[in-house]
Specification:
heterodimer, A: 379 residues, mainly alpha, three-stranded antiparallel β-sheet, 3% strand, disordered N terminus, B: 632 residues, alpha+beta, seven-stranded mixed β-sheet, five-stranded antiparallel β-sheet, elongated, disordered C terminus
Amino acid sequence: MSYLEQNIRTIPTGLSKVLYFNWPLALLLTAVASTGFLMLYSVSGGDIHRWAQPQIIRFCLGMGVMIFMAFIPINFWREISGIAYLAGIAMLLAVPYIGQTRGGAQRWIDLKFMTLQPSELMKVGVVMALALYYDWLDERRVSRPLWVAIPIALILLPTFLVLGQPDLGTALLITAGGAIMMFIAGVSLWYFGVAFLSIALLLTGVFASKGTEYQMLKDYQYKRIETFMDPSSDPLGSGYHITQSKIALGSGGLTGRGFMQGTQQRLNFLPEKHTDFIFTTLGEEFGFVGGIVLLVLYGLILIFCYVSALSNRDRYGSLVTIGVGTTFFFYFAVNMSMVMGLAPVVGVPLPLVSYGGSAMMVLLMAFGLVQSAHVHRPR
Amino acid sequence: MKRPVKPARLRKLLTRRTIFLAGLQAGIIGTLGVQMRRIAVEQNQSFRLLAEENRVNIRLIPPVRGLIFDRLGKPLAYNEPNYKIDMVREQSGDPEAVLRRLATIIPITEDGIKAALEEMSKRRGFVPVTVAEDLDWEHIAAVSANAPALPGITPELGHYRIYPQADDFAHIIGFVGPVSDYDLSQIDDDDPLLLIPRFQIGKNGIERRIELPLRGKSGIKRIEVNAIGRVMRVLGREESHPGANVQLTIDNRLQRYAMERLGDNSAAAVVMDVRNGDILALASAPSFDPNKFVRGISTTDWTALNTDDHKPMLNKTVTGTYPPGSTYKLVTALAALKGGFVTPKDKVYCGGYTEIYNRRFHCWRRGGHGKVDLHNSLKQSCDVYYYEISQDVGIENISEMAKELGIGVQHDLELPAVREGLAPTKQWKKLRKDADWVIGDTLNASIGQGFVLASPMQLAVMAARVGSGTKISPRLVNAVDNRPNPVKGREPLDIDVEHLNAVRSGMFGVVNERGGTAGGSAIRHKGWEMAGKTGTSQVRFITKEERARGVTRNEDLPWERRDHALFVAYAPADNPRFSISVVVEHGGGGSSVAAPIARDIMLTALELAEDMDYRALPTDARAARSQPDDKA
């Protein structure tokens, strides 16, 4: 049996692909999303039409897209990776002209049936482009300066476009996601060392210059940075969010007040109670136990992604899977840290739980890639 | 097409680095779990408390102020609902824009907007400030309907204090007004109600002196609020206790008549029931409208009130003190009789003046009265009689008698600034003037001039005590919250009845006999005859040169230098029921100006006396008390 024959035999075709799905992963995604439906129902005070129902419809739609994408061979996705990246860049460039402004930031494009956030799409776009790049790149060139500079450019272009919207949180996530891709692809650790060091030096320099005649930023800019780093210095601004969200989380205790029994979110103390701060409702109503259950579900999703990636001998497939998993990780880790007062407040939703179409669609499409890679992996 | 699988070196690297990455992520997830445990489990108690505080807000329910009635149950002060608009600066975003929007719905003037903005800038951001008052229900409905466009705006229901008798009771009832910072610094009262913006407290009169019972006790409402302070539901409430009702001894009909009779004069009149001390009228003219103060008096009105030389703001009945003039002869006469220095039959020769140490003390009648006894000395108000006897009696005895009759002592009335008057003694002059008492001072004091000062209320008390022979004390408040105010001073005076009768006969002569100084003011109705004493007190010193030129006639003097006209009396003479005092500032003569006024008021009092007995607080008055309102 030739090498080629074996490959053809082990890669499923037609409807039999269904059997090779990563079903546990799909089940976990559904479980997390269901937690979100419950929370949205509770936050709306028992009004299913307000948030829960649209969210359920979008999730079903997203699952359909994911399954559809899983049927399409991974090679197809590999081929269009570059196009996907360029399309994302084009949309980011178009946002200032045709985008909608909400809450002081211009991030949305109206597609009539839903509004799309190109910056969300770009998170996956960067992952796909870098996976394609490292799949194509010759092994010996991975750590050569010129071949390191190209992916950096691929990361920084969308980062700056997103920063201009302005959306600091997404920009940081894109950069971090891209850096992880480079790390996984095998770029020499020296580059990472140097990058860390220079960022540290720059930050130290900026802050050390404060108050001297070489001061690099204006006073109010320092003030903004300080508020960003330490929300409690601005008790009515972002500090208010953090304090209120900690109060809600903390009042839950070990097992919480019970479903629909939370008081803080219903009384509107929590800002963005149905989007970025929905985790506080979970904490208040289901307590520490509820939070840990969600955290475990998220962890299991990561484990299934990484196990799939490591068992996949197709480099593009594993790189995309790890990239999607890491992006997913960044979403929930940053959101939870923010809600629990460990990180500054940046607008990052809790993946699959927060109310919102763009993030959910993009994530399920990304998991469609992961499923496709899983189904079509050479064994 | 199938690409060849990449060489093994990179695969191993990928596996290694993925495992490292997964480990890192597991560590972060663990940290999140630990932090969650710290917040939710370890700090649960404190956060639970904070959550409770977040949710529950305590609001005061202001009590409805007690009502004030006269003795017949006629309301003198009550409350009317006042729809108003409050605004909280920090909830409104741009206060000026919100106010302009509000002005399109309800009537607010440009000045009103400015005043509201200024007050808001002075107070802390979360304190509600009243931006409009006295609105119709339609306006409130319109504001409620437009609530989303008017952040920080809440319609409230308050109460206005109404004084239906307006000017007639201004000095007695006083008025209420918003608590000022000055008030807060002056009163030792930690009632949280005082911190409510524009909370009304008594500023003058009864409203001020009986503030605490009238105010009532605030209730508490525990409400659940959301982050912007909107009330979600009421968790529980403890009702407020409305203020106590106060009933006065004043008869509104007599009071109104007295005010009318005093007219444009700068004058005071007090009518008292000699049997129990009830003050039936306490009139001070001119007066003012207390309702203007409740709604905030305009600068023009305020300046007018303060620059008027007739002093409308002053309660002349208790705060104004005057030299009592010849009305004080009752005191000197009783002191002389009590000390045995004269008998009623003893006669003194009046040649028009008494000369002591080369100084002449003139009688009001230049030619003198000839030989006068006690009866005639009162009837004709002979000064020389008193100049002579007072030298034997001495100032100490006179002042002691004055205090016995209620002059120079503090009376316990529920009014602010009740003056003590002055019955001077040698020690007083030493202490206050740093000078020795001279005999001339005694002579002046004997006819109620010099240092002697008495308020119209004290003069009425004096007449009541002489008439009744008891130490009766004035009583203004009949009952607070239906608890009666006891009558004080039913015990007899420390004076022989015969001595009293001698003076009473003189007072009867003043009004009812030929040659009496108040002969023109007699009450002819049988059994209602009045016994009284006139007084004309100088407010200027007549120099020798002036006297040589011929004393200027009173009418030719500028108003503020004319004599005060006084009259005290009781009636009916044989069975005293009421006493009265009338003081007309710079009015001229007691007999020509004060006595006719007193006669008319006394006559009215006697006419009303038929049904002037007490009535219990009418039941409908209690029903008129409006219910405390929920400010939701």
